[in-house]
Design goal:
The structure holds 2 protein chains of 2 kinds.
Chain A lengths: L4 E11 L4 E12 L4 E5 L6 H8 L7 E6 L6 E4 L11 H11 L5 H13 L15 H13 L5 E5 L7 H17 L3 E5 L3 H7 L2 E5 L6 E6 L8 H4 L3 H14 L4
Chain B lengths: L5 H37 L5 H4 L2 H13 L2 H33 L1 H16 L6 H8 L3 H25 L3 H9 L4 H12 L1 H25 L5 H10 L3 H29 L1
Helix pairs in contact in B: 3-12, 4-5, 4-7, 4-10, 4-11, 5-7, 6-7, 7-10, 10-11, 10-12, 11-12
The chains are: A alpha/beta, B mainly alpha.
C-alpha cells in the first residue's frame, strides 16, 4: 500500500543573530494509512518542529514531504486546548470549518454528532471555562476532527493534564482515532504514553535530530492503551527505548 | 424564589443589606462634607469669598440655569468631549489594526508613538491655537492629541498580547491574516478595547477642559477660566462641581454600555 505520508531527507535549520542551529537533520520516514505513529526523543530535540513543518506552520530548510492523496487535510492538536473563551463549545468546534468556508448543515450535524457520541452533548452551549481540563482537551480533539482530517498530529496533546486524566483521556482519544479511522502522528516525551498508544515508535536522537531507532510495537494481547500498559511487552519496550534515549542529568 | 433554601435566603438578605449599607455610607459622606462646609461658611470660619459655600453653589447653578447658559456650557463641553472621544476611538482602532497587520510599521513607529504619547500636550497649546485657530476645532484637536496616542498604544498592546498558541491553532486551519484578526484578535480584545475607551473618555475630557482654559467662549472650562479672572469663586466652584458630575455620568454611560453589550 502506498504510504499516506512520505518524508525524504528533511532538514531544518534555525537562525538567530548569534548562531545557526540544526534542529532536524536528514529525517526520512513513511507513514501508512490508519497507522498510529509516536515520535519520542529527548526534550528540545526538534520533535515539535517536525510536526509544525508537517502542519505547514513552518518550512523545511531541505527535503521533501509528499502526501499519498490529493488535497489531504491535516488536523493539529496542541498541548494547550486553546479554546476561545468567548465561544461556546459548539462554536469552538465550528472554528476550523468556518475558516475553511465549509460550515454547512451536513458538517454542522457531523460536529454535533461527534460531540454527542463522545459525551459532550450536554455541554455544547456551555463556555469552555465551565469544563474540566480533560473535557476541554476532548473538545479540542473534536474541533480538530471537525474538519475531517486525513492525518492527525498530536503535539504533547496530554502533557498539560494531571496523571489520571491523562491516562483516561489517552484511552478515549485512542479509541476515537481508531473508530474514526484516522492516521495519527503523536509527539510525546512520555514513553508509557507512546508505547501504550502507538503501532510504531520512532526514537529521535539529541539535537541535531536524526532517527535513532524504530520499533514496531507488537503485543500479544494488544487492546486499549490502559490495558496495553499491563502487557509484559510494555516494560520490555520501555526499557529498550529508555536506553535509546540515553538520558543524562 | 420559593425553591431557594432557608440558608440561601439569609445569604441574599445579607448581600442586599450590605449593598444598601454601602450606598447609605456614600450618601452620608457627601452630606457630612457639605454640612461641614456650609457650617464653616455660615459661622464665618472660612471666607466665602475664596471658599464659596454649598448654598452659594446652588444659587449660582440656579442663576446659570435661569439664563439658559448652564445647559449651553455643559452641552459644549460634552459635545467637544464626545467628538474627541469618537475620533480618538476610531482613529486609535484603525491605527492599532494597521500596526498589528504590518509589524514593520509597528517597529518603525514605536519610538515616535512613545514620544508623542509622553509629550505633555499642553505644551502644544499655543501652537495648536496658531495652526488651527481660536475655535472649537482647536479644543477638539487638543483633546484628540491627548487621547488618541494612549488609545492607539493600549489597543495595539492588547492586539499583540493575544496568546500565540491561539494564532498557531488558527494557522493550522490555514486561516488568513484577515480571519485571524476577525475571529481572534478583535473578539479576544473586547475587554481591552472597552478599557481603552474608558481611558479615552477621561483623556478627552481632560483635553477639552485644557483647551477651554486656553481658548474658548463657551464650556465648563471657559466658566472656570472666566470665573477666576473676575474672581467669582462661586462660579469656579460651581463649574468644577458640574464638571465632576458630568465626568462621572460619562464614565457611567460607558460602563452601562459595557454591561449591556456583554
Amino acid at each position: 500500500m502506498k504510504p499516506i505520508l512520505t518524508i525524504q531527507h528533511l532538514t531544518k535549520n534555525y537562525h538567530d543573530k548569534k548562531s545557526e542551529m540544526t534542529a532536524i537533520q536528514d529525517i526520512s520516514l513513511d507513514v501508512k494509512e490508519n497507522e498510529f505513529l509516536a515520535i519520542v526523543g529527548p526534550s528540545g530535540c526538534g520533535k515539535s518542529t517536525l510536526l509544525s513543518i508537517l502542519a505547514g506552520l513552518d518550512t523545511a530548510s531541505k527535503g521533501k514531504i509528499t502526501f499519498g492523496k490529493e488535497n489531504l487535510k491535516i488536523g493539529y492538536m496542541l498541548q494547550k486546548d486553546s479554546l476561545f473563551p468567548w465561544r461556546t463549545i459548539l462554536e469552538n468546534c465550528y472554528l476550523g470549518l468556518e475558516i475553511n468556508h465549509n460550515l454547512n448543515d451536513v458538517t454542522k450535524k457531523r460536529v454535533i454528532d461527534l460531540l454527542t457520541t463522545y459525551g459532550l452533548g450536554d455541554f455544547m452551549d456551555k463556555y469552555p471555562d465551565s469544563l474540566s481540563g480533560g473535557m476541554r482537551q476532548r473538545v479540542a480533539l473534536i474541533r480538530t476532527l471537525a474538519i475531517d482530517p486525513d492525518i492527525l498530529l498530536l503535539d504533547e496533546a496530554f502533557s498539560a493534564l494531571d496523571y489520571c486524566t491523562r491516562l483516561a483521556l489517552s484511552d478515549d482519544v485512542y479509541q476515537i482515532i481508531k473508530k474514526e479511522g484516522k492516521t495519527a502522528i503523536m509527539v510525546t516525551h512520555d514513553l508509557g504514553e507512546a508505547i501504550s498508544m502507538a503501532d510504531r515508535i520512532i526514537v529521535l536522537s539529541k539535537r541535531p535530530s536524526k532517527i535513532k531507532t524504530e520499533y514496531v510495537i507488537e503485543m500479544k494481547d494488544k487492546s486499549t492503551p490502559i490495558n496495553n500498559r499491563k502487557c509484559p511487552e510494555f516494560s520490555i519496550y520501555y526499557d529498550k527505548i529508555w536506553r535509546d534515549l540515553d538520558v543524562h542529568l | 424564589m420559593s425553591t431557594y433554601s432557608e440558608e440561601h435566603l439569609v445569604f441574599l438578605k445579607k448581600a442586599k443589606r450590605r449593598k444598601r449599607l454601602i450606598i447609605l455610607t456614600q450618601i452620608l459622606i457627601i452630606v457630612v462634607f457639605l454640612a461641614i462646609w456650609q457650617l464653616l461658611a455660615s459661622f464665618k470660619l472660612i471666607n466665602t469669598f475664596t471658599f464659596s459655600s454649598p448654598w452659594d453653589v446652588v444659587q449660582t447653578t440656579i442663576q446659570l440655569a435661569k439664563t439658559n447658559q448652564l445647559w449651553n456650557h455643559i452641552w459644549v463641553t460634552v459635545y467637544e468631549t464626545l467628538i474627541s472621544f469618537l475620533l480618538a476611538g476610531g482613529i486609535g482602532l484603525i491605527i492599532a489594526t494597521i500596526l498589528w497587520w504590518v509589524p514593520f510599521l509597528a517597529k518603525v513607529f514605536d519610538p515616535y508613538l512613545t514620544i508623542l504619547n509622553s509629550l505633555p500636550k499642553v505644551a502644544l497649546g499655543p501652537l495648536i491655537i496658531i495652526w488651527v485657530g481660536a475655535s472649537v476645532n482647536s479644543i477638539i484637536f487638543m483633546a484628540l492629541m491627548i487621547s488618541v496616542f494612549i488609545t492607539i498604544i493600549n489597543i495595539y498592546n492588547g492586539f499583540i498580547s493575544i496568546d500565540s498558541d491561539y494564532i498557531k491553532l488558527l494557522r493550522s486551519f490555514h486561516a488568513s491574516k484577515k480571519e485571524i484578526f476577525l475571529k481572534l484578535i478583535l473578539p479576544g480584545n473586547r475587554t481591552n478595547i472597552i478599557n481603552s475607551l474608558k481611558i479615552n473618555i477621561s483623556m478627552s475630557l481632560i483635553g477639552v477642559i485644557m483647551g477651554e482654559l486656553l481658548v474658548s467662549k463657551q464650556g465648563l472650562g471657559y466658566l472656570i477660566m472666566y470665573g477666576s479672572q473676575v474672581f467669582n469663586i462661586n462660579l469656579v466652584i460651581t463649574a468644577v462641581v458640574i464638571l465632576g458630575i458630568v465626568s462621572y455620568l460619562m464614565y457611567y454611560v460607558i460602563n452601562w454600555i459595557e454591561k449591556k453589550s456583554s
